[in-house]
Specification:
The chain is mainly alpha-helical. Helices cover 67% and strands 9% of the residues. Strands 1-2-3 form a three-stranded mixed beta sheet.
């Protein structure tokens, strides 16, 4: 899907560009204000830059077509990268949270300075982040890329810390209250940690060949059960790898029809599944209806079996 690959690549390049710009801007703002909330936001943006670069590399690698050594493609690179992203985000959350608690327990929290300049930078960060997340969400709806989805999740989680940093700088400038800065930073750390756990779990499930979304499985089963010429189905199996979903399905057909007729039924069902789920890789096996299992076939309970049509 060349168009999907281009969309994923555009999201990756946009993410890296925004992260780089925000690192430079927040580094300057930290030097001007000395605010821990800005430091937390800077650390988050620096981490964003690292994981966005890794994500961009994964998107480029995952877009490579299947080859002799990787017959099913390279999309698992997205899951490996997303898992790495979650670990980086967890480390970032720990560092920010530790610093925030230290300031909250200090007898005299440090005063902030040049809050107006810091507020301008945080406003810039909010505007750029909203634009980036909007584009990433559009790309994810089209391509289903796990890397872009993970990137979008932690950029979305950046919005609240950025808004919090903006409010803490305003509170410091308006009322001279500096402890809010540490409270905002601690809240940002907790949000980062929860987001990292969600990203990591989704990536881990994919690497462990977890089945596709149950709604997707149910829809495929519904299509197979009602497809003209199909008398039943069994052994519906799915697994995810990056933005790709692999589907294996056995359909039961009239054994007296010609091979051309049987092939036409299976090919039409495959095209219908791909039209509804373009990120899928579909293999359909055709079995004559009513044939008992061979004694030498391995015995197992099939994951999905439809009732036979009469």
């Amino acid at each position: 899907m060349p168009d999907d690959n281009r969309l994923n690549l555009s999201a990756g390049l946009f993410s890296v560009s925004v992260a780089l710009l925000l690192v430079v801007a927040k580094l300057w703002a930290l030097g001007e204000t000395g605010a821990l909330s800005v430091a937390a936001s800077l650390a988050d943006s620096a981490m964003d830059l690292m994981v966005s670069l890794a994500g961009l590399v994964a998107i480029i690698y995952a877009a490579r077509p299947p080859d002799e050594d990787h017959a099913f493609g390279h999309t698992s690179a997205e899951d490996l990268t997303a898992l790495g992203q979650s670990l980086f985000i967890m480390v970032s959350a720990g560092v920010i949270g530790w610093a925030a608690v230290g300031r909250l327990l200090a007898d005299e929290p440090p005063a902030l300075a040049s809050e107006g300049r810091g507020m301008a930078v945080m406003m810039l960060a909010i505007v750029l982040t909203v634009g980036l997340v909007a584009w990433q969400r559009r790309v994810v709806r089209r391509t289903g890329s796990r890397v872009v989805a993970a990137d979008s999740l932690h950029y979305l989680s950046d919005l609240i810390p950025n808004i919090g940093a903006l409010l803490s700088l305003w509170a410091s400038a308006r009322f001279g209250v500096s402890y809010i800065d540490s409270v905002v930073a601690l809240g940002a750390a907790l949000m980062l940690a929860f987001g990292a756990l969600r990203i990591g779990k989704a990536a881990w499930d994919a690497l462990m060949d977890r089945r596709a979304d149950p709604r997707m499985v149910a829809r495929i089963a519904e299509m197979a059960a009602s497809w003209p010429g199909v008398h039943g189905y069994h052994d519906l199996k799915t697994r995810t790898a990056g933005s790709k979903v692999f589907i294996n399905l056995h359909i039961e057909l009239d054994g007296n029809q010609t091979l051309d007729e049987a092939h036409a039924i299976g090919a039409a069902l495959r095209r219908a599944i791909l039209k509804e789920f373009p990120q899928a890789d579909v293999i359909i096996h055709k079995d004559p209806v009513g044939v008992p299992p061979h004694p030498e076939d391995p015995t197992k309970n099939p994951p999905e079996r439809s009732p036979r049509r009469k």
